[in-house]
Design a protein that fits this description.
By secondary structure, the protein is an alpha/beta fold. It has 3 domains: about 5-150 and about 390-540, FAD/NAD(P)-binding domain (3-Layer(bba) Sandwich); about 155-215 and about 345-385, FAD/NAD(P)-binding domain (3-Layer(bba) Sandwich), CATH 3.50.50; about 220-335, no CATH class. The chain is about 30% helix and about 15% strand. The protein has 17 helices and 21 strands. Strands 1, 2, 3, 4, 5, 6, 7, 18 and 19 form a 9-stranded mixed beta sheet that branches. A hairpin with a 5-residue loop joins strand 1 (about 5) and strand 2. Helix 10 runs antiparallel to helix 11 and helix 15 packs parallel to helix 17. The model has no long low-confidence stretch (mean pLDDT about 95). The protein binds ligand NA7.
Length: about 550
């Protein structure tokens, strides 16, 4: 079916989807191919991929194992695709998503290089009116935001940036042709997951790399390796079981989430467990060590101290090692990075670590940058300074609901939603992996598939029952917001200045945005809501 164009030049759709990453692609497939509804995706980039389209920085790699950082909805897709390594590199994930787009013939329903600039709900028709930066007008019954949680990049407002004579780049908007660091003095600002992945790769190329660190992080070795054909065969033979384990796991991973308590074992036993998981690498250290490290500070301290000991053991210069040791937040309360030779990079002669916590960056100069106590001459500045996470991209769309209320105003004191799926006052708008859902605390494709399937089932239900408007009720939303907050308060998460809390963006209200209660409880709750006629939502003809 081709999209209808009404006489007034307004294109009429059943469903408009914003974003062509993991969420948008699957959403399109479900709505267009299974429900047979008139659907269009709007995507600002000139290709599919979402976060994997933009984040092409050196060392960009997924921290989830490749074979589970993928769709589970098609067994054929699962069997035909071959991953090359334990953790997939950005180009390989992008290749995979392009393959998905081709395999399911998705491109013909995606409008590239088109940014949605406003979305306004029309109360009379119960439809969303969209405008785009290409001047198009669109009317859709449902609006699905698939804009991702980490897609609105954050470049700090340092004075003087425009005076810089060298080149500067944000890791989340990396040039497609790449950057040549050979013979260059490079400054890297930021030591989150991105800075930690990029450091060793840039260090291997640049004449000199200066890493400007505001907050040290607890990084665990990835232990990346090629996926042998034997391992790949075994995975494919057991895919059903692996996917089931992921779906039943609170974090969406295929390994055991530990329930044993750090306080119940001896120090020797604890260290043996940490050592084993450190050697296995990746998120296992976080998920499979002890069930109380995210809720009990004393338990957390044992993990934190283990990692600090590893840093001190790895980094030769004691002062640098000490500077790399995090002490201001509990382990795991900021997104835990995993790395390949991050700490080892600081043993190189061409790498320097600068503490910008005690002596912040005050200015970008024509020749480089100035901190409170020193000048650094640089040819290239890399901003690995993160994102306006979870709400940034959504609010950039200028969404207006009932009575013309702007979502940005409604969320001025932090995001409020029912199940992270819908917002009171914004009928027929669904937010895939929105704030208030497990999203970034899980292996993302697992959370994405659950949301996409729930939303498409909901739209199908609406159509089958002759309904045209769905909106979360105030009571249901308030109860959910309180539950999300109570769950977070029972953990150590609120103790960190993390992007989970909105703390990385000056002026952003601090509230813990994702749902920490785990995928299992969350999935049950969403299923229960649907099975009871979409309990907590008001449905209208
Ligand atoms: P993150 O995790 O938000 O990291 C950004 C880093 O940039 C972090 O170390 C920040 O320090 C630092 N930063 C931000 N602003 C400044 C200023 N003004 N001065 C100095 N340093 C600054 O983003 P990533 O891209 O690394 O990771 C995002 C997610 O992508 C990741 O978690 C994965 O899910 C994939 P801070 O810690 O705020 O003190």
């Amino acid at each position: 079916m081709s999209a209808q164009v009404a006489a007034a030049g307004v294109r009429q759709l059943d469903v408009a989807i914003v974003g062509a990453g993991f969420s948008g692609l699957y959403m399109l497939h479900r709505i267009r191919d299974l429900l047979k509804l008139e659907t269009q995706v709007f995507e600002a980039a000139d290709g599919v991929g979402g976060t994997w389209y933009w984040n092409r920085y050196p060392g960009a790699r997924c921290d989830s194992e490749s074979y589970v950082y993928s769709y589970s909805f098609s067994k054929e897709l699962e069997q035909e695709w071959n991953w090359s390594s334990r953790y997939p590199e950005q180009p390989e994930i992008l290749q995979y998503l392009n393959h998905v787009a081709d395999r399911f013939d998705l491109r013909r329903s995606i409008q590239f290089e088109t940014r949605v600039t406003s979305a306004t709900f029309d109360e009379t028709s119960s439809r969303w009116n969209l405008t785009t930066d290409t001047g198009e007008k669109v009317s859709a019954r449902y609006l699905v935001s698939a804009v991702g949680c980490l897609s609105s990049s954050n470049t700090p407002d340092f004075p003087g940036l425009s005076s810089f004579k060298g080149d500067f780049y944000h890791t989340g908007a990396w040039p497609h042709e790449g950057v040549d660091f050979k013979g260059k003095r490079v400054g890297l600002i930021g030591t989150g997951s991105t800075g930690i992945q990029a450091t060793p790769v840039i260090a291997a190329q640049a004449e000199h790399l200066t890493v400007f660190q505001r907050t040290p992080n607890f990084s665990i070795p990835a232990r990346n390796a090629p996926l042998t054909s034997e391992a790949a065969r075994e995975i494919k033979e057991n895919y059903d079981r692996i996917r089931q384990t992921c779906r039943e796991s609170d974090f969406g991973f295929p390994y055991e989430v530990s329930e044993r308590l750090a306080s119940e074992v001896s120090a020797e036993e604890r260290n043996a467990i940490y050592s084993e998981l450190w050697d296995l690498g990746g998120f296992r250290f976080f998920a499979s060590s002890f069930g109380d490290i995210l809720s009990d500070k004393a338990a957390n301290d044992t993990a934190a101290e283990f990692v600090r000991a590893k840093i001190r053991e790895t980094v030769k210069d004691p002062a640098t090692a000490e500077l790399l040791c995090p002490t201001d937040h509990p382990y795991g309360t900021k997104r835990p990075p995993i790395d390949t030779d991050y700490y080892q990079s600081f043993n190189r002669d061409n790498v320097t670590l600068v503490d910008v916590r005690t002596k912040p960056i005050v200015q970008i100069t024509p020749a480089g940058l100035r901190t409170e106590d020193a000048e650094y001459d640089l040819d290239i500045i890399v901003f690995a300074t993160g994102f306006d996470a979870m709400t940034g991209a959504l609010l950039n769309m200028d969404i207006r609901g009932l009575n013309g209320t702007r979502l940005a105003d409604k969320w001025a004191d932090g995001p409020r939603s029912y199940l992270g799926l819908q917002i009171v006052g914004f009928p027929n708008l669904f937010t895939i992996t929105g704030p208030g859902s497990p999203s970034v605390l899980t292996n993302m494709p697992v959370a994405i598939e659950q949301h996409v399937e729930w939303v498409s089932d909901c739209i199908d239900y609406m159509n089958r029952h002759g309904l045209s408007r769905i909106e979360a009720t105030e009571d249901a939303q308030e109860e959910w917001v309180q539950h999300v907050w109570d769950e977070a308060q029972a953990t150590l998460f609120p103790q960190a200045n993390s992007w989970y809390m909105g703390a990385n963006i000056p002026g952003k209200t601090r509230v813990f945005m994702p749902y920490v209660g785990g995928m299992t409880l969350y999935r049950d709750r969403c299923n229960d809501v649907a099975e009871h006629g979409y309990k907590g939502f008001a449905l209208q003809n």
